[in-house]
Amino acid sequence: MQRKKTSFKGAKNEKNSIAPKKRSIWSTIYNQRYLWFMILPGLIWFIVFKYCTYAGLTFAFTNYGFRDEVSFVGLRNFSRLFQSSVFWNAFRNTIIISLCNIIFYFPFPLIVALMINELKSLFAKRAVQFMIYIPYFFSWVVVGCIFVTLLSPSSGVVNKILNSFGFDSIYFLADTNWFRPTLIVSYIWRQMGYGAVIYVATLATVDPQLYEAASIDGCGRFRKMLYVTLPSIKSTIVTMLLLNLSHVLLIFEQVLVMYNSSVYSVSDVLQTYAYREGILSGNIAYSTAVSLFVGVVSLCLVLGTNFASKKFLDDSVL
Amino acid sequence: MSQTKVINNHIKESKSRIVFRIINTILLASICLIVIIPIWNVVITSFAEDKDVMGGVYLMIPKSFTLKNYAKVLQSGYMDGFLNSLFVAVSGTILAMVVTVPMGFVLAQKHLVGRNVLMKLVTITMVFDAGLIPFYVLIKNLGMIDSYLSLILPFAVSTFNLIIIKNFMTSIPKSLIESAKLDGCNDFTALIRIVLPLSVPILAAVTLFYFVSFWNRYTEVVMFINSNSKYTLQVMLRALVFQSDGSLGDNNIVYDNMKMAVMVLGMLPVLIIYPFVQRYFVSGLLLGGVKE
Fold first, then answer.
1. Is A269:A94 a contact under the CB 8 Å cutoff?
2. Is residue A11 located within the same domain as residue A144?
3. Are residues B142 and B14 in the same domain?
4. What DSSP element (H or E) covers A15?
5. In the predicted model, is pLDDT for residue B2 greater than 60?
6. In a 10 Å sphere around its CB, with 0-12 CB exposed, 13-18 middle and 19+ buried, how is residue B81 labelled?
7. Reported pTM
8. In which domain, by residue range, is A16 found?
9. Which residues of A touch B210 (CB under 8 A)?
10. Can you tell me the distance from the alpha carbon of A192 to that of A9, in angstroms, rounded to the nearest whole number?
11. How many beta-carbon contacts under 8 Å exist across A and B?
12. How far apart, in whole angstroms, are the C-alpha atoms of residue A86 and residue B210?
């Protein structure tokens, strides 16, 4: 009853002010008060958990961490950082692992999606997507555990197969030569379905008339794929590539779950380095400098890829 | 003349097409097998007797079936971890939906004053992240270390999910909301009565995403939780498999079947919910989030 009354009142007000455009901004905000109440929790969340962390980045310029009184030290943390060989090793590992992840992973989902698209039966299409999408919902811990058991030197299937061909067992997760390939394979295993499902959904939006036109022009399957399918999903391909590129420095949980001290030299990435320095050793200011470095470089990567996408695709990713 | 050529061409193509389809099916089937076999192996091993998994390879074909491993796991500390994880995931998902859905709805209202500024505020957080350590210091200053709040509150909004919801709700005709308002709804009741029933697919998908992200969380648990009794299953599972924690076995030896039983516990909720919501994101709902 109450609600009806107010809405009636609102309608009357609108009648009085002949042109609604002339209403002041405050009365518009008042009219949208329910919207503001609804967005308030989310806004507070963004301010507390996102924007307050930005303020925390200033620790990078202090000696926060060990001593009680915090004082400003300028760029000392950064000069220490850039002189540290551990940092540069972590930086190199991050770039190598991430780029390998992208290079070896990237073609898979696209190829699988094109293959799924060629299947005739709708049921088969659905079934394949259903299955390959499952690992994406497993945590890196579960994926890591699955790989540990498969690759175990004593009882793992992979090493049993190697043994039966006369090779020695390989300690995949403790051998510096094999750790990175293991990371990449597990990355592909987990993420392939996710990418493929996105491509399949995009492929479904391609206008069938284009294929008909192409067959009338005498295109075979392969040329149809080359001249119709790929150009139609070009923007999704580039978007996925750019998103991957902009996350190059952020690789973390997968490594944190799977690495151990015997492979630090090849597996320590920037995030795990910051984690060990800051949280395990308590060197907050120094590791904030690492975080800031990662954040700024990632920002540049995102903006750069967005610029590239605008330039080459006339389509902004952001 | 030209007609016969076309017909010939057609027959030839259909032959090569058959070969192509056979190869294609075989390749796809083997990809599916590569994905499924490791999971299947985990499941069957978790039901195996000790003697079958000792030393040898246990692959593909189950040799024995016993619930003994699960009985043992359910009585151990891993059950507490499971319940901890479940508590965090369920309460976190509820909170996240309660915060994210109205926010997505509001951001979808084009007439909202200051909408562009709000969208900018959200987008900035997507392109620039302060990173691990400032986040840790914030949680510490908020006094949430070693409390489940640190695993729930900071993850109440995922920008990706927010944008998926916003994009979907932008596509709902404005006239529907306006006519609801004429019938006496305000923005809030319009959301509940009109928009939410129309958004069931997207809500189902986002709920699953949130649940999975809470359930699977590992790094932050290691960072923020100190007491063993509060550890979630993921942390305990990693300790069991990677560091060979011996608390489950006799003489500190844990056979694979026991580890796999814990692992099944670690993927169980996700595997149960997944089939019900899978059709929603196969239909392409994710694209909105990826494009933004």
1. yes
2. no
3. no
4. helix A2-16
5. no
6. buried
7. 0.86
8. 1-31
9. none
10. 57
11. 282
12. 36
Is A122 contained in some domain? yes
Tell me if A134 and B157 make a contact (CB, 8 A cut-off).
no
Contact in structure between B262 and B240 (CB atoms under 8 Å):
yes
**B95 — contact with chain A (CB < 8 Å)?**
no
Which of B128, B235, B266 is nearest residue A295 as measured by Cβ atoms? B128
Q: How far apart (Å, rounded) are the C-alpha atoms in residues B122 and B116?
A: 10
Q: Which residue type occupies B43?
A: V
Give the CATH number for residue B237. Answer: 1.10.3720.10
What does the pLDDT look like over A28-79, one tens digit per residue?
888 888 889 999 999 999 999 999 999 989 888 888 777 767 778 888 889 9
d(CA A58, CA A51): 12
* CB B197 within 8 Å of CB B101: no
Query: Measuring CA to CA, which residue among B23, B32, B68 is closest to residue B50?
Result: B68
Number of H helices, E strands in chain B: 16, 0
Portion 213-242 of A in contact with B at CB < 8 A: 220-221, 236, 239-240
Q: What is the CATH number of the domain that holds A289?
A: 1.10.3720.10
The ipTM is: 0.87
- The Cα–Cα gap between B193 and A5 comes to 20
The distance from CA B277 to its chain's CA centroid, rounded to whole angstroms, is: 11
- Say if the Cβ atoms of A150 and B32 lie within 8 Å: no
End-to-end CA distance of chain B: 54
